Amino acid sequence: MARRSRLRSGLAVAAALVVGYGLLAYVVLPWAWTHYEHQSGLAGLPMVTRTAQDIPGDPLNVGLVGSQEDLVRAMHTAGWSPADPITLRTSLEIAGSVVLDRPYRDAPVSPLFYHSRRGDLAYEKEVGLSADRRHHVRFWKSLDSGREGRPVWLGSVTFDRGSGLSRYTGQITHHIAPNIDAERDGLLADLILARMITTTYAVSGVGPTLYGHNGEGDRYFTDGELRMGALVVAGQRAEQPPAELPSPPLASMKNAIWAGATRAHAE
Predict the structure, then answer these.
(1) Domain ranges of the chain
(2) Cα distance between residue 162 and residue 232, in whole Å
(3) Please, what is the Cα angle at 215 between 152 and 122, to 5 degrees?
(4) Burial letters for 198-208: b for 16+ Cβ neighbours within 10 Å, e otherwise?
(5) What does 78-135 look like in DSSP terms, one character per residue?
(6) Is the whole-model pTM more than 0.70?
(7) Could you tell me if 207 and 255 are in contact, meaning their C-beta atoms sit under 8 angstroms apart?
(8) I want to staple 194 with a disulfide (CB 3.0 to 4.6 A). Which of 23, 27, 77, 211 is the partner?
C-alpha cells in the first residue's frame, strides 16, 4: 500500500513537472521574452560588425528611425560632425592631429562592414584637442521600412580613448573604451537634449557580454541591448520628452541583474 502511494505521488509530481515545463516553455517565457516586439523586422539579423579582414568588430548598440535627411539633421543639431572619407590627405591630417595634438573635428573613421557593406554614414564628437580621443558612430541602413513605416538605421557607437597598434593585425588604429553602453546612452542623451527624439525603446542586440573583444582586440562589455530612437520629422523639434516603450518583463529583469553584476565587477 505504501509503495503504491509513493508511486502515485511520484507520478503526480512528474505530471506536475511536465505541465509546469509546458506552461513555462510554451506560454510564460514566449510571452515575457518577445523582445523584438517594437521592431520585428530586426529579428534574426546579426548584431556584430566585421573588419576588412572579416574579424568580428564592434557590436551594434544603437538605432535610429527616420529618413536619411532626418538622421543627418538630427546628428548635426545634436553637435556631432560627419566624418571625412578616408583619403591620403585625410589620413595625413588625422596623423598630424594625433602627433601634434591639434583639432580635426571631421577626422575619418576606419572602415567596418555589416552585411559586407561599409557604413552608410559616420559621425564623431571631439573630446580634447586632437582626434586621438573622440566619440564616434557608424550607421547602416538596415530596414527600408520598420514598425513606424520609416527607414531603420543600426549603428555602432564607441569612444576612442587613444591610438596604438591592433592586437590582431599590428596596424595603427584607435583603441576603444570598454563601456560601450555609456556611449550608446550618451549619443541618445545628446539627441534627446537637442529635442530630436520622439520615442525610445530597446530591442535585442548582441546579448549580455562581459568579456567581448572587437576587431582590434579591445575589450568591451555591454548589457546587449540595442537602444532605438524615433527621430522627429523634418527637423520639427519635440515639444515633450520622448515616450519610452517598455521592455518585456524578462528583459527588464535581465537588465537589473546585469547592472548589479557590472557594478560588482567594477569594484
Answers:
(1) 1-32, 45-266
(2) 34
(3) 40
(4) bbbbbbbbbeb
(5) TTPEEPPP--HHHHHHHHHHHHHT---TT------EETTEE-SEEEEEE-SSSTTSEE
(6) yes
(7) no
(8) 77
Q: In this predicted model, what pLDDT tens digit does every residue of 200-250 receive, in sequence order? A: 999 999 988 988 999 888 999 999 999 999 999 999 999 999 999 998 887
Whether residue 36 contacts residue 42, with contact meaning beta carbons closer than 8 Å, is answered with: yes
Which grid cell sits at 133?
580621443
Q: What is the DSSP string of the chain?
A: -HHHHHHHHHHHHHHHHHHHHHHIIIIIHHHHT-TTTT-GGGTT---EEE-TTS-EEEEP-EEEES-HHHHHHHHHHTTPEEPPP--HHHHHHHHHHHHHT---TT------EETTEE-SEEEEEE-SSSTTSEEEEEEEEEESS-TTSS-EEEEEEEEEEEEEE-TTT--EEEEE-SBHHHHHHHHHHHHHHTT-EEEEEEEE-S--EEEEE-TTS-EEEE--EEEEEEEPSTT---SSPPEEPPPPHHHHHHHHHHHHHHHHHH-
Q: Half-sphere exposure of residue 38, counting CA atoms within 13 Å on the CB side?
A: 23
What phi, psi does 32 have (nearest 5°)?
-80, -25
Grid coordinates in use for 227?
Answer: 537602444
Grid cell 547592472 is found at 259
Name the stretches of the chain with pLDDT < 50.
24, 28-29, 32, 88, 91-104, 165-166, 170-171
Q: How far apart are CA 87 and CA 94, in angstroms?
A: 11
Cα–Cα dist 68/141, whole Å: 9
Retrieve residue 39's grid coordinates: 521592431
